[in-house]
């Protein structure tokens, strides 16, 4: 039976999926799809022969499939999932009985009738709303053509996998290595039902493929899981190209098994799809084991040394991006925000040596006093004297700037001002005046345009390219400005802009515009920045709408975080080093690589969200992110090799590369499991921030709750009344200085100030040392209750 005949056959409701679970049956009335098993034989990557059967999943069974001169036995088994009444496990095995075949793949398909282009389709980190966006083919780095730049530009992406926004063929082809979790999510607004399909990264024949294909009239659709992957096209940095994927060779007795878990449930709105995913994202793979490698304090020390050794420029008066090679442009020296220009100085002021603090001060002074445009906005690129713009096609246009850069600047300038005051240092009046002018420029831009756009003209306060959540951190920056300068209008504009982001981006299930090199592809950077803004607004106003927004956005952000440990090729650099991917963060829909951190944030917004909600899932997500980072940078005792001109060379100590290459988007230049020879400034900034802004240990003595983010173990031995005894063990070969946030269960609802971590006491552990420490909630050692000394922690 070919696919067209199969689609015409009788439809089966989702209720059949859950024939063994009555509760699920009642909730899925009217949403139609059926399941098939199929075998494909290919000529190159094009199907030349196919044969399939419909699966009656109400009972386990075995049937024959004939494909050309071969005979196969297909058997399947379904089972309920404990504690998941809306879930069904399906295992489908194919065994070749007679004949032999090459370039062949096994497929399990979900066939949907009554399909609609209004259905929201999500493949974690790769596809959002089916990627049904406008397309502009472009070179790399990409930029919207001048003729198409306008404030009301609809979401526009490069040529990468997507469902067609117009007429004609509509098919997107991905594979598990392109996804933060091998999964497909679908939300139907007409029937208010939703589905998540989870599968494994690979079978014995390699990574699997995931395809979503719509009929020409868009009334039907097919979701396929294929082993091995065989794509017609694959993504590169600039466009789709013909794929070199091929099927596997099978001989008599060979067998291949596909495993799927299906969740089908009622969904009153799109957010339910994301909320459910946050709960089930690790269900199929299970939780990954912790791997204590190096304490956060030691990681910071190595990075601080690298920044002072290689990145500081006395000539320019700032920390450079660290990419100075022959022929590099000014673009590689310094950028305001996004890639770390003014972010890493916060960490250096907080935890750096005296020379680091002096240089961080000079860095701030250089940028604040030299790079401000007449409007109050700051230029995006420069060398301390000459300033350029963010138009990759014409950087001499110094007035064009990624909105995110100035939003980052406002937020991080004010956080550093608060820290300096806490440290007893006077903030220069010239600095305060300049940053007030920056806040005023955002107010002018908002009143003039009703949005912050993606690219702005810093001379005229106009939006050149609009839409997107590029400036997603701007509401947080304006909220801090309202507090710092005592200006209520800043807070008003912060809330107005945050409401736009919520209604347009969060409720639409797509955030875009965070990176400056991905057109308007969906991205993780703007996604996280919105959590920062929403949670800060809640802390400052106490309004329930901002807590609701923060929780919803945290669930959407979680889709970008890798939920399992990817199996790298054994001979690859990452395979040899045993690299773990759980907690790495995918960049965006265009640049198909995961990253070892959030660009450019510590992740502390998730801790703040936990303090309000007491939902441990946020701590779990945050710990995954923080603990994975240090393994991806090179150390003297653990050198990472990188690709340079086709050869592997040693990375220098302290060098970190942003690529966690699970995808083949840069093949053959940088294959799966390899990195290029360089160090990424934004990752350096992100790791220094997470090493300093996030406590290594969080304790609530009165509840006996302890949680570690650092590479240590913590075991609560006992707690009585307001005190708890915690055993801390440093299993690494390095000494550790652990910042401990200690608070009572009643303190958690008090807002943290923007320099809260500076109040946390420090616990020192020698390499491989174990200590038992008594924490007392009556002393309120948290930053929420003021400044504290380490002497209040009893040992």
What attributes characterize this protein structure?
single chain; 795 residues; alpha+beta; Beta-galactosidase, Chain A, domain 5; Glycosyltransferase; Immunoglobulin-like; 3 domains; 7-stranded antiparallel β-sheet; 17 helices; globular; disordered N terminus; disordered C terminus
Structural class by sheet pairing and helices = alpha+beta
The total of beta strands comes to 38
Overall structural domain count = 3
What's the main sheet like?
7 strands, antiparallel
Give the N-to-C terminal Cα separation.
73 Å
Helix content: 25-40%
The name CATH uses for the topology of the largest domain is Glycosyltransferase
Highest CATH level, the class of the largest domain = Mainly Alpha
Proper CATH architecture of the largest domain? Alpha/alpha barrel
User: Which value, in Å, is the CA radius of gyration?
Assistant: 27 Å
**Strand residue content:** 25-35%
**What is the molecular shape?**
globular
Our count of helices gives: 17
Mean pLDDT: 91
Q: Uncertain spans, ≥5 residues at pLDDT below 50? A: 1-31, 324-328, 780-795
Give a quick rundown of the structure.
With 795 residues, the chain is α+β, with helices and mostly antiparallel strands. The model is unreliable at 1-31, 324-328 and 780-795 (pLDDT under 50).
